[in-house]
Amino acid sequence: MNRAVASALLTLLLLLGFAPASQAQLGISRPKGQQLLDGIIVKVDNQIVLRSEVELIYAQEVARADGKPLPPDLKCKILQSLVLNKLMLARADVDSVTVEDKQVNGEVDRRMAYFAQQIGSEKRLEEQYGKSIKALKDDLRPQIKDQLTQQKMQETITGKVAVTPREVAQYFTRIPKDSLPYFSTEVEVGQIVIPAQVNDKAKQAAIAKLNDIRAQVLAGGDFATFAKANSEDPGSAKEGGYLGFFKRGELVPEYEAASMKLEPGQMSPVVQSQFGFHLIQFIERKGNTYSTRHILLKPETGSADVSASARLLTKLRRQILSDSTTFAKAAKDNSTDKPSSTNGGLLANRADGGSRLPLDKLDPAIFFTIDTMKVGHITPPMAYRTDDGKDAMRILWLKSNTPPHQANLQDDYQKIAAAALNEKKTKALDEWFAKNRGTVYLEVEPEYAQCKVLDVAEK
């Protein structure tokens, strides 16, 4: 197999792989007591590559290989990829490519919520890492900002790259027939998610408790003390409810609108947002930023609320099965799971962006549900826990079931097109690297000199 074909095949196989997010991918460093021997091994202008970055990614690849041999130059390839990322960050500074703080904070919150769910709770996350949620978010924020900046810079380089059907076919024909990947059973699964609604009794209890706290603070009580004892926002509770400084547009609209009506030292009435109920104390304005404290209460949902969600899903299921509506329309109009609701209710394959999912890579809760289903069947409403830990109900739809087969253009066009596009984008990045590598200062430690990181574009 020649080098170009081998590279193309490798790209295809990597694209078709699927692995759950790891701690490193989430951007969270190792727990206390598990630090790697570190040191700077490459400098790219004001950007650096640490030895631990290379070693951590290498360790992930070793674990993923499960005993199979790895390329002898894998560490060099990892380093080359990291250097390309650092070059993009360095050029982003020069070209004034930036990301908004609102986007960074949103991604930090999303990853932290997901990781807390994987571990079990925010409290267990704090215990494992020996830090508060706020401290973990502070550690995470610079990494996320760099990742988002790299993505934006890469988009400016490859955003207009596209492949034609002819290029996809040419890409596919370069792969030797005896090296074509063999795909296991794949399915298309749709879902409609309806969260549990907080009942009025729980809402009124939360509001009453916050109003009581407000009265005690107005009578001379200390807001921070009440926040430490009562707030259900673990990231700020330990800090007396203090959230720090934010610009306009960075906090949820309801919270910001209430804050903007206050003067330093004043408290808001009880404010409801997507996170629960807040009591806000305004601290100060500084330039175009402002700081606040808050006490957050999250009313618990109950079985009656889940039952209401189940009744709505039962009604939608009946309408879909009677052809009164389509699954796609019902998902778009009712499901609160945005990634799937905007995709006709279908779950997406993170590896290639398509809707066909390898059966053996499915979430166990879905696998054991659809394993005995017939194509076209829709389940009755089932209990579900969302990625951010909220109670909900959902129905699942098995749209299609593709038997095991060897890759071909007819059945696997979307995957092959994604791999061909990735190869073309990689070439565009290599060309950009070759053009811009001389515009930055680059220094490599002697132990990695053999990696020839400047030769990325000359593979």
Textual characterization of the structure:
The chain is of the alpha+beta class and 459 residues long. The protein has three domains: 3-180 and 408-458, Orthogonal Bundle (Triger factor/SurA peptide-binding fold), CATH 1.10.4030.10; 185-197 and 302-403, Chitinase A, domain 3, CATH 3.10.50.40; 200-297, Chitinase A, domain 3. Helix content is 48%, strand content 16%. The protein contains 17 helices and 13 strands. It has helices spanning 3-16, 23-26, 51-65, 74-95, 101-119, 122-129, 133-158, 165-173, 200-218, 223-230, 234-237, 253-260, 303-321, 327-334, 338-341, 364-370, 409-436, and strands at 40-44, 47-50, 182-183, 186-195, 242-247, 271-273, 276-286, 289-297, 357-358, 382-385, 391-402, 405-406, 442-444. Strands 9-4-11-10 form a four-stranded antiparallel sheet. Strands 5-8-7-6 form a four-stranded antiparallel sheet, sandwiched between helices. A three-stranded antiparallel sheet has the order 2-1-13. Strand 6 and strand 7 (276-286) form a beta hairpin. Helix 1 packs across helix 17, helix 3 packs across helix 4 (74-95) and helix 4 (74-95) packs across helix 7 (133-158). Residues 1-36 have low confidence and may be disordered. This is Peptidyl-prolyl cis-trans isomerase SurA. Pfam families: Rotamase. Residues 184-284, 287-382 form the PpiC domain.
Kindly name the structural category.
alpha+beta
Radius of gyration: 26 Å
Provide the low-confidence segments as ranges: 1-36
Quantity of strands, as a count: 13
- Tell me what the CATH architecture of the largest domain is: Orthogonal Bundle
* CATH secondary-structure class of the largest domain: Mainly Alpha
So what's the oligomer here? single chain
Strand order of the largest sheet: 9-4-11-10
Estimated share of beta-strand residues: 15-25%
Q: Count the domains.
A: 3
CATH topology of the largest domain: Triger factor/SurA peptide-binding fold
Distance between the termini: 16 Å
* CATH H-level superfamily of the largest domain: Porin chaperone SurA, peptide-binding domain
Order of helices and strands: HHEEHHHHHHEEHHHEHEEEHHHEHEEEHE
Q: Mean pLDDT, rounded to whole units?
A: 85
Total count of helical runs of at least 4 residues: 17
The biggest beta sheet is recorded as: 4 strands, antiparallel
EC number: 5.2.1.8
Protein name: Peptidyl-prolyl cis-trans isomerase SurA
Keywords: Isomerase, Rotamase, Signal
Domain PpiC: 184-284, 287-382
